[in-house]
């Protein structure tokens, strides 16, 4: 059976992806920082498929390299890496944000993703044809909006890194995709607002955001495309989300 390594499997897209790939019989390597959630997911899915859980902070390059370069044989060959762990912080304007919040986003969304990619690449190259790296970008990486500051910039990195990887991996059979969702209802906004449940509920209330399962379905689709197809970027929004007009600063009347 093919195996998939999912970062950030303790919540949202990563957890739904674990459930989706398990349904198709894939072996699962699941990572995240919250051990109790990893254990619960393993308990849920290990009747269906082989599950390896690794409590891991993607920012810790040594721990990432150590864990991924020592995967048990049973979980090889590695067919798919889903670089999903990530977060937004501080929805306030840039000039009001604590520097630490910017660092946390850069360290997680950029450095963490690079750490995991670097560690997993030898395994994916060994698998060759049909292997995939699926990177969670965002519409925020392409479209600016107030309060997007470093979060959007970190996802622009994910897009360009994905494209550049494609160039270097040409001829190896390994595919790379930047999957860029719009508004999706997960714990994302709870994290972004540092635990403000009311703000999170308010964002999703009265509309129809994407659900984690929608993104999991796209991840499974990308990972199981015929081996000669690479989707470079896949941007997905809910029907009830679109762009807005340019903002203009005007003199008071
Ligand atoms: N929801 C949305 O609207 C959108 C989200 N995205 C992106 O999708 C990805 C998943 O987000 P989503 O499922 O919505 O959010 P959730 O907050 O529900 O899940 C985020 C996951 O990332 C993990 N994570 C965060 N920081 C770290 C870290 N330092 N080390 C390891 N794991 C970490 C969390 O696990 P733990 O805390 O246990 O470590 C958790 O499993 C993110 O990259 C996000 O930027 C993109 C577009 C839209
Ligand atoms: O990446 C998250 C989606 S949004 O909040 O930027 O629309």
Structure description:
Its EC number is 1.1.1.313. The protein has one domain: Rossmann fold (3-Layer(aba) Sandwich). 42% of the residues lie in helices and 16% in strands. It has eight helices and nine strands. A seven-stranded parallel sheet has the order 3-2-1-4-5-6-9, with helices on both faces. The protein has a two-stranded parallel sheet with strand order 7-8. Helix 1 links the parallel strand 1 (3-6) and strand 2. The protein is globular. It starts with a strand and ends in a 17-residue tail after the last strand. Bound molecules: NADPH dihydro-nicotinamide-adenine-dinucleotide phosphate (NDP) and ligand L7H2UBRR. The ligand O=CCS(=O)(=O)O is lined by residues 138-140, 182-183.
Summarize, please.
The chain is α/β, with parallel strands linked by helices. The protein has eight helices and nine strands. Helix 1 crosses helix 8 (212-223), helix 3 packs parallel to helix 4 (99-127) and helix 4 runs parallel beside helix 5 (149-169).
Write out key terms for the chains shown.
253 residues; seven-stranded parallel beta sheet; two-stranded parallel sheet; globular; binds NADPH dihydro-nicotinamide-adenine-dinucleotide phosphate; binds the ligand O=CCS(=O)(=O)O; SDR_fam; Sc_DH/Rdtase_CS; sulfoacetaldehyde reductase (NADPH)
